[in-house]
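Entry type: protein chain
Record version: 2
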Amino acid sequence: MVRIFLFLLCVMLLSHRSGYGENKIYCSSPEGVHRDTVYQSRTLDFTGNDQDYPVGSYINDFGNNKNNRNIATVNASEAGRMSISNNTLCVKLLANKIGDAGGMWADVTIGRSTTTKVLQYDVKFGNDSVPFEWSMGGKIPGLGGGQSYAGCSDASAGDGWTARVMWRSDNSGNAYFIPYIYYVDKPSRCGDDFGLKYYGSDSKGLKSNRWYRVRIEIVMNTGTAYNGQLKITIQENMKGQWQKAVALIDKSGIRYATRPEGLETGQILVSIFRGGSTMQWAANTDGYIYFDNLSWSDR
């Protein structure tokens, strides 16, 4: 009973705190399964036996599963679609589902930076026995700050932003990557792709069962100045060799935000799902996306 009381007291304290990093409060569950923490930098290689990947394992690896309002974001259904497979993190995308109903949408609070932040990970769509059905497209992880706007929401208040990557497919079924950015000056209702696409090294489309390395580098703007920078590069692994990185976007003069609460990087958006908001984005078959060598740092 004492352990349960202390756990509930810790949760109450967490619900009222606003600081990160230097004012961390660690809460273990009554069973002592895991602790919440905030990492300024971290590298995950998901090495281990093939097994399920429950919420406790996610928190042990990433530090927490909290969004910018300190609310837990991974539910049991989403965790049930995650597993460790061949020393990678595998996320299952359900057939005829979009959004987190068929994949996952989670957040991780990371150590704040008002200058630079880098997120990098390897990603593979499908495997040698189950090719990936690209459908219309979907989201993979990125960085955010402040309100971490997404879902075709208005970011003009200047108190938050996000920078993710999407995969899309054209009318011929060829898949490609685009940047997908929410920032104070974005010109459209949903994320800005700046008209940029990466079709792969042969310009014929992304390949199922091939590893791609995504690197997202953020340099935050200061105040209301147009001096932020964004660089996203893609590398392909060809026959076991990583090829030269290609810039999906390399842009300066960005205003991510204009208000103090938005002028920082403090979140990883672990967005792994199909969509879009309509069933046109769904696939007819289950799909699998694999992640490895995921890291974040201040440079």
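Comment: Residues 1-33 have pLDDT under 50 and may be disordered.
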